Amino acid sequence: MATPKKSRGAGAQSKPGRALGLIVIIMVALVGGMFASGTFTPRLGIDLAGGTSITLEAKNEPGKPNAINKTNMDTAADIINRRVNGMGVSEAEVQTQGKSNIIVNIPRGTNEKQAREQVGTTAQLYFRPVLTMAAGQPAGKGDKSATPSPSASTGDKATDKSTGSDKATDKSTVTPSPSATTQGRAVTDSLKADATPSASAKTGEDPKATPSASTDPATAALQKKFMQLDCTDKAARTKINEGAKSTDPIIACGQSQGQWQKYVLGPSEVGGKDVKKSQATINQQNGQWVVNMEFTSNGSKKFAATTSKLKSQQSPMNQFAIVLDGDVVSAPSVSSTLSQNAEISGSFTQESAQDLANVLSYGALPLTFHEQSVTSVTAALGGEQLDAGLIAGAIGLALVIIYLVVYYRGLSIVALASLLTSGILTYTLMTLLGPAIGFALNLPAVCGAIVAIGITADSFIVYFERIRDEIREGRSVRPAVERAWPRARRTILVSDFVSFLAAAVLYIVTVGKVQGFAFTLGLTTLLDVVVVFLFTKPLMTLLARTKFFTGGHKWSGLDPKRLGVQPPLRRTRRATRPVDPKEA
């Protein structure tokens, strides 16, 4: 049993270079990552870099007089926070103000335009049947022909992701076919007349120029709005469906192949709440960005029933429009029943596809908001506080160095080299985490990094004192370094575990800037373990083999006389021990 122990001890002492080589590789990889990404400084939070402050005001909706309440405001703030703040370390601040306002602060350096779009998007998603469609620009306004060109077709198709096959291709036209009179599964009786082509449509005349006759005032009003709507007018698009419910037919606009189209859409049978999750991916067949949606169990049944009814209709009434916040994102046609999964296709870029998937994943806001004000935030005050914090950190680090040099002398070389290694790892990780997860360095995060100096120094002190205790017991330097490590290792791990647990709990139960402090504290605590195991201990093993330390030089920090050890040491007594014939 004794032989394996000696072998392990010898192996541990003879191969410290492997651990040192590993941590050098890690540092080189991290620095290389900085050069590869072109990012050399950490992204700063709004208190250090400034940014944009957006004030959102909740709007009353028809039929919901008491919708603006504390519960809905808190829910909306939480959803907005998750949309723009990711893991909670990108430093976007979201908070309610008063009864109807939400303040969103977005730090400079982020994609502020993209963040503003995510903030203001209500994300009300509905799947509605298409009753009719036309060019999005009224007749006589910059266009001599009221009939849209073929390039105005949607170009989209509905895909059943559960089977991975395309179920329909788009062959939509503007003029409803004669069989459209049979369509009536999800529209009111008064609107069925609008789906019936007029005589002018049958003779090839412009259907918008000659509306079909209708004695129902609501139907006539809807048709009038449809003919007069100019989709290039954002204000008109916003107001056209004010007060409409999901069970009401609506008029909506959408862009396809760079051109506007307008639609008359029937009541919704499937909504955003029926979507379980969504993800932006690339369609392997055409290389375009799409948004894949997975429906809930109930939503899957609704979607299957809806597409089952649409597949037998003729174009454009075999299409369903995917409507997000009143705008048609896509209007694919259906030729067979679709099941659990669906794909939203269209003219998506990677950014727009990810934005749509993001807002669908986090859900719709319970209220409708509009931007009340957008102001720029300066970093003057934060810059002054940062300077003060850095000065305080420099003073604290200088005091730690002075203490280490005076008290531990030669051992301070190990401590300072370990602090430098920890600093390099911390800086590179913070820099890379900016573009990776949106991490932003704010004042509390800087405080967390300063506190980490003490945590790291504490680990060195624990190990050094264990080594000194072994020397006081009469052991020489090299055996003392190895025997002290198991005892110091347990203490360091327990201490770092407690610090990391506190940081994790703080991160979970808090929001905003405090999460930045907790995240930095947890990160640096983990790095302390890495540095102590892969750098401090191996470096100490190598230095213990040098004459400066083994000889007990008075400036080594391990001088037996200064530690109160009375000679002879155990090494001297072992030297006079008779030689075992077996060892010879």
How would you characterize this protein structure?
This protein has 584 residues and is α+β, with helices and mostly antiparallel strands. The chain contains 18 helices and 15 strands. It has helices spanning 2-14, 16-37, 46-49, 70-85, 112-120, 189-195, 199-202, 217-228, 234-239, 297-310, 350-362, 380-408, 412-437, 443-472, 477-509, 513-543, 547-550, 570-575; strands at residues 51-59, 93-97, 101-107, 125-135, 159-160, 165-166, 250-256, 259-265, 270-271, 275-282, 289-295, 320-324, 327-330, 341-344, 368-377. Strands 4, 7, 8, 9, 12 and 13 form a 6-stranded antiparallel sheet that branches. Strands 2-3-1-15 form a 4-stranded antiparallel sheet. Strands 10-11-14 form a 3-stranded antiparallel sheet. A hairpin with a 6-residue loop joins strand 10 and strand 11. Helix 2 (16-37) packs antiparallel against helix 16, helix 14 packs antiparallel against helix 15 (477-509) and helix 14 (443-472) runs parallel beside helix 16 (513-543). Mean pLDDT is 75; it is low at 1-13, 142-157 and 160-214.
